[in-house]
Amino acid sequence: MALRTFANLDEFAAAKGTHLGYGEWHEVTQEEINLFADATGDHQWIHVDLEKAAKGPFGAPVAHGYLTLSLIPLLVRDIYQVQGLSMGVNYGLNKVRFPNPVVVGSRVRAGAELVEVTDLPPGKQAVVKVTVEIEGAAKPGCVAETVVLLVPRQASEG
């Protein structure tokens, strides 16, 4: 699981249509789930009520789908980097699905595929399909087409 480094945006764009790799495993904890519940106001019992969730359909608390989605920056950071950028900005999502619940204590990791790269001022817009795998599960916890705007560093930025 080596970090794939691209020297610049053109080198990154040339990787269109390829799988960029996999990130490190990350354990989803009840503390993360509780903090996310507090941040979003979503305290549904399947996430935060340990006793009731243990008797529920998943046998334990499960992460919010949006928590799993929000872990993507953490899960992708060890997959690839593009050098020479001023910034990368989340531009949106094309498609998001949550095929499988992420039960507390599960380990997840991301795989990333560079689907599309287009010129868009002031840089390039990239669509990266991210699949959040659950260790030992047949189906992923999340599949999302993330859209990012990558802005190259200008000579004046050093």
From TrEMBL:
Membership in a protein family: Belongs to the enoyl-CoA hydratase/isomerase family.
Gene3D superfamilies listed in its UniProt record: Hotdog Thioesterase
UniProt cross-references to PANTHER family, sorted A to Z: MAOC-LIKE DEHYDRATASE DOMAIN-CONTAINING PROTEIN
InterPro entries named in the record: HotDog_dom_sf, MaoC-like_dom, NodN-like
Name this polypeptide is given: MaoC family dehydratase
Residue ranges occupied by any MaoC-like domain in the UniProt entry: 12-131
Source species: Saccharothrix coeruleofusca
